[in-house]
Amino acid sequence: MGDRSALETAAARAIAYLDELDGTPVGPTVTSDELRARVQAPLPEDGTDAERVIEDLVRDVTPGLMGSAGGRFFGWVMGGSVPTAVAADWLTSAWDQNAASYGPSPAAAIVEEVCGTWLKELLGLPADASFAFVTGSQMAHVTALAAARNQLLEARGWDVEARGLIGAPPIRVLASEKRHETIVRAVRLLGIGRDAIEPVTCDEMGRVRPDALADALDRAPDEATIVCLQAGDIDTGAFDPFTEACRLAHAVGAWVHVDGAFGLWAAASPAHCHLLEGIEQADSWVTDGHKWLNVPYDSGYVFTAHPAAHKAAFAESASYLTMVSGVRNENEWGPEWSRRARAFATYAAIRALGRRGIAELVKRCCASAEELITGIDEIPGAEVLAHPIINQGLVRFLADDGDHDRRTEAVAARVQEDGTAWLGTTIWHGMRVIRVSVCNWQTDSNEVERTVNAVRKAATGT
Ligand SMILES: *Cc1c(COP(=O)(O)O)cnc(C)c1O
């Protein structure tokens, strides 16, 4: 095999990167201009030696990498990757399987099938739910809502796959006012349109209010309706009241969709699964492997309680495909055709951790989030706005001059500059706040202590 050295170099450099992560600044250390200066070059006319390409790539981009693979990155909701999953992901690239259907890669199809069953059991979802492995929660929403669109319109005598949406009965989308942006994009992509979304009022912590949902359903009980709930609000980690919401929605034949991009993983922890009570009554669910399961990107999962509607939304027979009976063709369940055999990394993570290890990972992240928020709370000027329900917490810093937003922004910026940890800010109830998210397998009390010390230094100078 030619260019074997490039593969060996890449493996060595990747391992060294992960080894050194603990001692390097978490945030990038170069500006966009500096990065461009490092990478920019005329389109190469001729090829370059493979090993050289890899060495240059590593040298030029490393300072522009975000240390989100490490245990002191708390921005957004990301997660790292357990080494076994990274290793399986390397193999996935080397094997270069096309996981479009069973034919081009029997192994990919069967591993996905097995992982789908494992995930349903881990997440407490119905064993007969259909599923798909997609790039992330964004496409998982598209997949689930395409199934919802099929079923709701089919019930009104409209074949949306054949006729499209022009002239179709209208679809209402009653979505939590705290819904993630990806819900809106999914609704747009499916041709339903952003204007079909009616926000449902939430309580202070971001949970849908059942009375607001009941009122919204009452306004047009006969219309095709999708209700979008959340398992894990992005700011507070709060869970919607699933039992009550499903009862109200199902009474008028609405489809209930749950965005559980990270929060659905609470189901894997016996200490937290009570938060999801009633969630199994929903019609579709999404979550990410690349967040709390700690597998590499791109890894999202979608499940539906309506396999016929799910399959009708995607299956399209093509004569050149060899249909093997008794097996599951991935492209009949999701929007992609040629695609990465992404189930291998999921298989590796689930086997490496086991049900118990996943429960411990979830529990450890939740405990670390609480420790982090409690530790920051002891710093003079800190004001905790939301203690973690699971792994998300909110805190800000009060300023003597009353400009709390500016001080909070400044503290976060100083933490980023210091490099020990990475914290970001968001707007919550009109206030600038630091949002802490813990979903990395490496975060523990030691990482929390180092972070609290860095935040103290950023806030007080000592
Ligand atoms: C991350 C996230 C998404 C989007 O997921 P992707 O995997 O980035 O597509 C959607 N909803 C919530 C609540 C999230 O945290």
Q: Share of helix among residues?
A: 40-55%
- Our measurement of the CA-to-CA distance between the termini, rounded to an integer number of angstroms, reads 56 Å
Structural class: alpha/beta
- How many strands? 11
- The parts where pLDDT drops under 50 for at least 5 residues are none
Q: What amount of the residues lies in strands?
A: 5-15%
Q: What letter string, H or E per element, gives the SSE order?
A: HHHHHEHHEHEHEHEEEHHEEHEEH
Over the alpha carbons, how many angstroms does the gyration radius reach? 23 Å
**Biggest β-sheet, characterized?**
7 strands, mixed
Give a quick precis of the structure:
With 462 residues, the chain is of the alpha/beta class.
Give an account of the 3D structure.
The structure is a single chain. With 462 residues, the protein is α/β, with parallel strands linked by helices. It is 42% helix and 13% strand. It has helices at 4-20, 32-39, 50-61, 83-95, 106-122, 137-154, 160-163, 181-189, 210-219, 242-251, 307-314, 343-377, 404-418, 445-460; strands spanning 130-134, 171-176, 197-200, 224-230, 255-259, 284-288, 300-304, 382-386, 392-397, 424-428, 431-437. Helix 6 (137-154) crosses helix 8, helix 9 runs parallel beside helix 10 (242-251) and helix 12 packs across helix 14. The longest helix has 35 residues, at 343-377. The mean pLDDT is 97. The site of pyridoxal-5'-phosphate has 13 residues, from helix 6.
Which characteristics define this entry?
462 residues, alpha/beta, 7-stranded mixed beta sheet, 4-stranded antiparallel beta sheet, 14 helices, binds pyridoxal-5'-phosphate
